[in-house]
Sequence to fold (251 residues):
Amino acid sequence: MRIPLVSVYKPVGFNLSSLKKENNVKLNSLPFDTVSFSGKKEKIKKADEKTVNKILCYSMEYQGDADLIYEDAKRAYKEVLEAFKKGNEVAPNGKVIRRVYKKPDTSTIHVEEYSPNDSSIITRQAEILNGKIESISQGVKIKLDGTEETSKYYTFSSDGSLYSYSEDLDIFPDGSVNVGRYYTYNGTELSSCSIDWRLSSDFTGTADSMYDFSFGMLDCYKKGCKFNKNGSQEFQKVYKKTYNGWTVETK
Fold:
């Protein structure tokens, strides 16, 4: 399983540039790179102060979490590189602790670490290309129906900095994906945060809410997000920070 979750368009907040599974399900080039809005919209009006304060409180919580996630990602990156250098390892009881291998016809090296008590439990997986880590998965479980559950999933830029983080990532046999939280970064700062989004294999999807940040400050919040196959997006409500305060736009 390698699922590079890559945001290629910051205002959108998230994107899947590719999804590759061992059952050969592939989703490439999601049509979210160009933003278009569909549906009739009401006129823009001033946002309710109480609602805005609530949104800001949540955004600050996510920013605080994002800072901790960034530090965890740096630590995981370092640990995986050290594990990669050590190579394969087997515990005294004969259980496989670490396996480093390259699949046929690929250039990517896989590092898999297992529970010393049960080799069927994968505690961490990573993909390395040209000596640089592309992704790290933690807490991977494969259910009997083929569903793959990952508690934490990181992707990294070529300089080793954190690019995106997914929490409670589920990949289903039909190619659909659920993610509890999805963060993207611009340098060390949080760029966007999407909450409870679901993507089908036909590129349609929904998200409960999306937060967009600039220079460490929230500048846009979207509620009730819908993503259509043709690339258009619909939102129940869009809150934007302007020079005259916060505004809200509804369909």
Notes: The mean pLDDT is 82. The CA atoms of residues 152 and 167 lie 5 Å apart.
